[in-house]
Amino acid sequence: MKVNRVIGCFITFVVAISAVLPGGVAASQDQQKPGPKMPLYLGAAWYPEQWPESRWDADLTLMEEAHIHFVRITEFAWSTMEPSEGHYDMDWVERAVRMAEKHRIAVVLGTPSAAPPAWLTSKYPETLRTKEDGRKDEHGNRQQFDWSNAKYRELASKMAEQMAIRFGHDPNVIGWQIDNEYANASFGPATRLQFQAWLKARYGTLDNLNARWTTSYWSQTYSDWSQIPIETSYGNPGLLLSWRRFVSDTWRRYQKVQLDKIREHSDPRQFITTNMMGFFDAYDHYTVSQDLDIAAWDDYVGTGQLDPVRNGAAHDLTRGFLRKNFWVMETQPGFVNWSKDNNALNKGEVRAMAWHDIGHGADAVSYWQWRSALNGQEEYHGTLVGADGTPVPLYDEVAQLGREFERAGPALSGTEPHSEVALLHSYDSRWAVNWQRHNTAFDPIEALLSYYGPLRSVVHSVDIISPSVPLTQYKLVVAPALNLLSDAQVRNLMDYVHGGGHLVLGQRSVMKNDDNGLQPERQPGPLGAMLGGRVEQFYALDQEVPVAGDWGSGSGKIWAEQLSVKDPQAHVLMRYGKSNGWLDGQPAAITRVVGKGSITYIGAWLDGATMDAAVKWMVESSGIHPLSIKLPAGVDLYVRSREETGAGPKTVWILVNFGKEVATISLPAEMTDVLGSGRVSAVKLDPYGVAVLSKE
Ligand code: GAL
User: Fold this and answer.
1) Using a 6 Å cutoff on CB, does residue 179 contact ligand 1?
2) For ligand 1, atom 12, which residue shows the shortest CA distance?
3) For range 504-529, the mean pLDDT
């Protein structure tokens, strides 16, 4: 069902290129005209409820002129759509949808459950969340609801149902966003009861739970389910992990009651998503994504300028939730209001960032927000028009982007990034490391990025995925800090290597089991026999240690694992130099060939140059042949492709110059300059310059 909805969308996209679009305009082959179906969408968050209706047409006219293709509306409009209990007013929404349609602007509707109205929280105070310190949240902000509360779910799902009945078949509504940025759990007694019931369902008996959490430690043994508390930072590791899993399952259930109502009353062509938050980790995004049609996230830089590596990894993470293209549902029009220093992105950077988004597999980029409300908590946030309703300086840059999306749409339609390399990421592992970092500098995201950046610069596309998904399509799978694995995940990795895959395990890998308890074997636990070696001891480092071997000479920092080789077929790749005595001369990285595959363990957090050499080795020994192209510093290449029947894959390159200098890139073969004209064999990019090139 889920798959069909989205495949359906893609087929429609492709058909739409050669078809007649709403409004009776025939689309040319090289430029997509705005309409409800676009291969690439430019969007903006619009809040018609905050403005007199007499103003809407002027706003939509300006949006149309800026080539905005969709607006996301209603995600905070509960008090306007249901001014008192059971009295729904959707007429104004209908008028906004129709007026947008007149301007050839499609609509994504948000369900408003992130901001319950005052009548609701005062009539049903049990729907307010209880903070961790036991105090009740109250009205006046947003996200003050209790996600585990049955009454709240009932009221939110009734609202979703009313919206879906009214707009589920509306030709100008292309999709749905449920709620907005799930974030806060609730900690009251009713939630605790639910948590205890969840534990009972998972563990069956208290004996089982006590054994798996080793509760004899510090006399934590439970003799009744009601004794089990909620702990979020220094509890028993099994308890901490269970709470986060409960939180994730509860968000999924919270989402599902709304989602089911929308599905029941809507066309399959309307997608359902929610807007997530990159590396935010308050819940397991793989759990919550699985019922959605597409993944989406809100991509904000905050202070400073865009870091294309870190931001790119967040895109690839989001693409990994459902392992296909995604949407950027919100991004900053220049600057935000909530960061430390709310500097603006430089002139040209907003456009460069949007193309970087598309390069990583986004099919839509949407600005938050169109126009600032005259009052409310976010008066200083960046917008595309001022409070006076006229364009701000950034407007023209965004309008250029809109024209470019239309121009490049047909070339990029149906294309996706395809990777031969996957990085494994799991929330369980991140949480487990973060609860017991052992060295405060050991940030699991930084550990992931230490592999991601060098790998991406060689292979130009990396998937970031869960260790539970099939891996056979990858030539190389790298698992940085994959601390905690279930038995099924261990089997998945073993099958991958036995099937000829090349697996690289980074520091702290396979130390824990599915209950956040230690594996009874040394790291990498059940993968040790396959590796032919193990971790003898781990050391949190207070200073760098030298390393040398097949990848040259360099250093390790933060964390070092002393490895040993138990099998004559295992090969020592790197050794530590003189440091704390324990590590001196000991293996720092080892590898073993397994049939046509291999398994490698890297026990050191390598410096940049040594990691580059390690990555070169990984790529070569996995039989990957990266594109041969020399990119000047600061220039990023993104490759998207689609299978073309009979004609081989259709490939589109996006080049973005994040460097400070003008860059010239020689192409390996002539390509079509999609944003410019004709065939080119080299491109010259100003700082923040962009080229979209099609290989055909
Ligand atoms: C997002 C949120 C939006 C808006 C925006 C401002 O996190 O979803 O509603 O507040 O931040 O940057």
Assistant:
1) no
2) 336
3) 98
